[in-house]
Write a structure and sequence with these properties.
- The chain contains 6 helices and 10 strands.
- It has a single domain, classed as 3-Layer(aba) Sandwich (Rossmann fold).
- The longest helix is centred in the C-terminal third of the chain and has 15 residues.
- The chain has a 5-stranded mixed beta barrel with strand order 5-9-8-6-10, surrounded by 4 helices.
- It is α/β, with parallel strands linked by helices.
- The radius of gyration is 18 Å and the shape is globular.
- Strand 3 and strand 4 form a beta hairpin.
- Helix 1 packs across helix 6 and helix 2 runs parallel beside helix 5.
Length: 253
Amino acid sequence: MKEQPFILEWDSNPHSVIEPNYEQQPFKFHSKLLFAFVPKEDIDNFLEQVPHKVLGSYDTISFQPDIYEIERNGEYFTLCQAPLGAPAATQLLDWLIAYGVKKVLAFGNAGAVVDLPENEMFIPTKAIRDEGTSFHYLEDSLMVDLNTEFLSQVKNVITELDYKYDEVTTWTTDAFFRETSKKVKQFRDLGASVVEMECSALAACAQFRKLDFAQILFTADTLANELVYDPRDGGTNSHRRGLEICFKILQKL
């Protein structure tokens, strides 16, 4: 008889051998986090325009981001560059939560799997779990549901700010170079309009830790024609714009 993969063996124990705050660092981050999947250059350019300081840093072998305090009108926020991929991004998010983060607005780029223009704004309301990390935070299911009161607040603020967006189902994958024609069609049939590499895992982590999470995605490359891949400009024009938009949204949450 075929054995069930270990990844589907849900362990509901909330305690781990290695807890996110095991180092007992002195950090205390502000509750509202902007978790930005953009290059460091864009973070630096954004910081030139706002009062800020470094609150701490996260030290791993290959990624050592600073965590920033941003001040606007007497209110303080946390900003952190996010690493590519569900395991690394979720590990960092879980650590940030352990040191004070309670509301998370993540943003980054996604590939289109249907015909969508580049640099358009989308809000995922469901994330298909084609990655491994989320299964360590939530029981087995096809999707993670992102429809929460917090997401409703985010949508209301976006409307108030007069930005245009559409709601989508996103496909979260672990394997950028294994987005095969068969899989693109499969996940499109499941309702996915975009594909990225973190959303379902971050949402699962947030649900496990019982805090607010939403993500905003801007379209980059396109796999809508799975016979001819089009990288376009990689969504570059949305990096700085996304930081500015998401910071405005975070201020009103």
